[in-house]
Amino acid sequence: MAINPTLALTLILLSLMVGAGVLSGSWGYSLGREALKSVTQPDTRPGNPLVDSEAMPARHEGFTLLKEEEILNNVKARVEGKSEATQIANPIEASPQTKALADPVAVSPEAQPALQLPVGVTDQAVSFQVLAVRQVNDSLVMDVSLHNQGAATVEFLYSFMDIVDDQARTFTGSAEGLPSQVPPTAEPFYGTVTVPLALVDGAKHLSIRLSDYPNQQLTLQVSDIPVGG
């Protein structure tokens, strides 16, 4: 009976694979055994002195019995320390006499002189005055006068007029009746400066600053104009 060459080759390959597997397994087992020869299992028997000396302190290390007297003393010390800290944190309140000496003397409104209108200023023979302050509808109207007693005509641009209140708010006003060119005259010129009331809400005093144009050599600044109580 003839043997099929393909079958014979298959059987030979299977035999070689089985042999190689057995050989590699035996070789791996031998290597692992040789590697584990130096490793020994620790002795954990209760009778081992080394185990007892290392394990016993660890069992009782975190547990310590305290005497009742020591606990009471610690609590008392903490309470007394807290009381002292509270006394330090809360200083003794000053007596009324001490407060009276420390507080500055308040000046009553009656003792302070009230500013009276008109108020004005003069620079280089040119005078600017605020004569009166009144409320007209929703506007604050200031009656003003401008008098040039110098030798030359002075020119003003009223759109550059600065108005500042006592809260450091700056705004512009509308000037009417005042000439842009103020010649030397024997009589002053009269007019008004109008500011919306909404802009000066809460203000007590105003300041008006006006400079000549375009030279900027003359400055008229009227301060402390009373506008509110």
Would you kindly provide a written description of the structure presented here, covering whatever features stand out?
- The protein is of the alpha+beta class.
- It has a domain at 119-226: Immunoglobulin-like.
- Helix content is 31%, strand content 27%.
- The chain has helices at 5-35, 49-60, 68-89, 96-102; strands at 119-123, 126-136, 139-148, 154-155, 162-165, 170-171, 174-176, 181-182, 189-196, 205-211, 219-226.
- The strands form three sheets. The protein has a five-stranded antiparallel beta sheet with strand order 1-2-3-9-7, with no helix packed on it.
- It is elongated, with a radius of gyration of 53 Å.
Secondary-structure blueprint:
Blueprint: H1 5-35, H2 49-60, H3 68-89, H4 96-102, E1 119-123, E2 126-136, E3 139-148, E4 154-155, E5 162-165, E6 170-171, E7 174-176, E8 181-182, E9 189-196, E10 205-211, E11 219-226
Short overview:
The protein is α+β, with helices and mostly antiparallel strands.
Using DSSP, what is the number of strands? 11
Shape: elongated
Spatially, the strands of the biggest sheet line up as 1-2-3-9-7
| Biggest β-sheet strands, sense, barrel | 5 strands, antiparallel
Mean pLDDT: 77
CATH class of the domain at 119-226: Mainly Beta
Assembly type? single chain
Defining traits:
single chain; 229 residues; alpha+beta; Immunoglobulin-like; five-stranded antiparallel sheet; four-stranded antiparallel sheet; 4 helices; 11 strands; 31% helix; 27% strand; elongated
